[in-house]
Design brief:
The complex is a heterodimer of chains A (190) and B (304). Chain A has a single domain (3-187), classed as Alpha-Beta Barrel (fumarase), CATH 3.20.130.10. Chain A has six helices and nine strands, in the order βαβαβββαβαβαββα. Chain A has helices spanning 12-16, 35-42, 84-94, 107-116, 128-133, 173-187; strands spanning 3-7, 23-32, 55-57, 62-66, 69-74, 98-101, 119-122, 135-142, 152-166. Chain A is globular. Chain B has helices spanning 3-11, 14-30, 34-43, 52-70, 93-109, 156-159, 177-191, 209-218, 231-245, and strands spanning 80-88, 136-142, 147-154, 163-166, 199-206, 260-268, 276-282, 287-293, 299-303. The two termini of chain B are 39 Å apart. The chains are: A alpha/beta (190), B alpha+beta (304). The A-B interface holds A 1, 21, 23, 60-62, 64, 73-76, 79, 102-104, 122, 124-130, 133, 161, 163, 165, 173-174, 176-178, 180-182, 184-185, 188-190 and B 50-52, 55-56, 59-60, 62-63, 66-67, 70, 72-77, 111, 114, 155, 157, 173, 177-179, 181-182, 185-186, 188-189, 192-194, 196, 243, 246-250, 252-255, 283-285. Bound molecules: iron/sulfur cluster. Iron/sulfur cluster sits between chains B (75, 77, 79, 155-158, 195-196, 283, 285) and A (76, 125-126).
């Protein structure tokens, strides 16, 4: 299990070197985007930022304005499976190289990771303060009309840690662990 | 002066009780109880150093420290706010509810609680964590001379993993302890990766559908290292944890040995026609705290 340092934007060749189980430490830009953002893109609106090579973070952060600067108070990952109907499309149309969230995603996203060259990165669910600590600056925000937790926040992170749980080679840690644990629980049945 | 006003006056000078509850909420949201911290940090020694499970538990440990130091919410989802209150006979529970609700509003303004109460039809957030059914109060009377209040914050991610089985079940078995055990392990299997494990289970065998879920959640008020007074249930609790931790699911569902930190099981009588196994799944951000209060609302002892 390697620790790989990533700097955004990321090219496809780098993403293809990652495998399920690798840990990554990300430095650079992250854009938040969850339900409302994915839905709006899906219904035809172009994203307000260039997403090529970027990572979308499934996160509804707690933001506070101090003077004229936004400060992030808590920023753990939210459940990703809600974006399953839309994520593959964003990978295809806007060439994002990864998403960060929790809980993993399904077959459509796994297939898109393989086809377009992207990965699913799992942050530690509930670790709102650790995640917030690696967010060094908030550089801007778009689509604030969706409400603060749903807006596209432009974060600058240093050493944001996550685990690759779905890679661009068709592997999913979630699928593997589920199948393995299912068999083990079956074998231990009372 | 009305009877209610007199009672409030006599039993609970508003500001003292308000301040005590506000501080209780702050502690609940920002400081994980000692028994949970011990369980989470102790679990690390079971995981292979440098594994993803080890990494997850390490990050969780750091997060617990950062939240406590900064007096910041452990997790951004501060969940359903549940009050479990015991009062002596004659104590004004209505006044308590009003004052505690006010403390919830203030805790939300101060950022200890996220705005988490949404109208189920319009989707509109009330913005202060109050509204029909929020926060949740469970009042009981008791023969003690003082008041006991416990607060639990239960996040949405783990609440979504709660499940209720009805036995017999074609895949899980009969109306016996084996059937119960299989049902609980099925819940663990299905919840993997979703409820921010390692998890803690509160289980109720029996009751009706409503009281079963309620009593399952109440099991989460027990200390993690207590012993179930019923030896049969104590053994079942141990067996479930053991098997869950051999399933390979691990923290966050990354794989590993720490899947459950504890399983707490209670029973309620049931109808001859029904046999429910109700399970409340709690995430590692297991926020529950409590306090004993005198009749003026002063904290005489912090619990957990
Ligand atoms: S399940 Fe628990 S730890 Fe995970 S996001 Fe929800 S409240 Fe936080």
């Amino acid at each position: 299990m390697a620790l790989v340092k990533l700097a955004t934007p990321i090219d496809e060749a780098t993403i293809r070197t990652l495998h399920v189980g690798d840990s990554v430490s990300i430095t650079g830009r992250l854009y938040t985007g969850r339900d409302a953002v994915h839905h709006r893109i899906h219904t035809g609106t172009r994203p307000p930022v260039d997403l090529e090579g970027q990572i979308i973070y499934h996160c509804g952060p707690v933001m506070v304005k101090e003077g004229d600067q936004w400060v992030c108070k808590a920023a753990g990952p939210t459940t990703s499976s809600r974006e399953e109907p839309y994520q593959w499309e964003v990978m295809r149309d806007y060439k994002i190289r990864g998403v960060i969230g929790k809980g993993g995603m399904g077959e459509k996203t796994l297939a898109a990771c393989k086809e377009y060259g992207a990965v699913y990165l799992h942050a530690i669910g509930g670790a709102a303060q650790v995640c917030a600590a690696s967010i060094k600056r908030v550089d801007g925000v778009d689509w604030m009309d969706l409400g603060s937790p749903e807006a596209i926040w432009h974060l600058w992170v240093e050493d944001f840690m996550a685990i690759v749980t779905m890679d661009s080679h068709g592997q999913s840690l979630h699928k593997n662990v589920f199948e393995e644990s299912k068999a083990r629980i079956e074998a231990m049945k009372a | 002066m009305s009877a209610t006003a007199q009672t409030i006056d006599r039993i609970s000078p508003e500001t003292t009780l308000f301040e005590s509850i506000l501080e209780l909420i702050r502690r609940t949201s920002t400081q994980l109880p000692d028994d949970v911290v011990r369980a989470v940090t102790g679990a690390r020694k079971n995981e292979v150093e440098g594994s993803n499970a080890d990494f997850a538990l390490n990050v969780i440990g750091c997060n617990i420290g950062l939240a406590r130091e900064g007096s910041l919410p452990l997790c951004q989802d501060t969940g359903t706010i549940l009050f479990y209150v015991h009062t002596p006979a004659g104590y004004d529970q209505l006044a308590f509810e009003e004052i505690a609700t006010e403390a919830v509003r203030t805790a939300t303004k101060k950022g200890y609680l996220r705005q988490n109460s949404v109208d189920s039809i319009t989707g509109k957030n009330t913005g202060d964590n109050t509204g029909p059914g929020s926060p949740v109060f469970h009042f009981h009377q008791w023969r003690e001379p003082h008041v006991e209040v416990k607060v639990m914050l239960k996040g949405g991610g783990c609440e979504n993993m709660n499940v209720q089985y009805s036995l017999p079940h074609p895949a899980l078995g009969d109306r016996d302890l084996n059937g119960v055990e299989n049902a609980i392990l099925d819940c663990v299997l299905q919840a993997q990766g979703q409820g921010c494990g390692p998890g803690i289970l509160g289980v109720c065998i029996g009751g009706d559908r409503g009281t079963g879920y309620g009593f399952a959640k109440e099991q989460l008020l027990r200390l993690l290292d207590d012993a179930n007074p019923d030896p049969v249930l104590a053994e079942l609790e141990e067996r479930v944890v053991d098997k869950a931790n051999q399933s390979g699911i691990g923290p966050m569902g990354f794989g590993g040995k720490t899947t459950l930190l504890a399983c707490k099981i209670g029973t309620r009588n049931r109808l001859p026609a029904s046999f429910f196994v109700s399970i409340a799944y709690m995430c590692w951000a297991y926020r529950r705290r409590g306090a004993e209060l005198d009749l003026s609302g002063n904290v005489t002892e912090w619990l957990y």
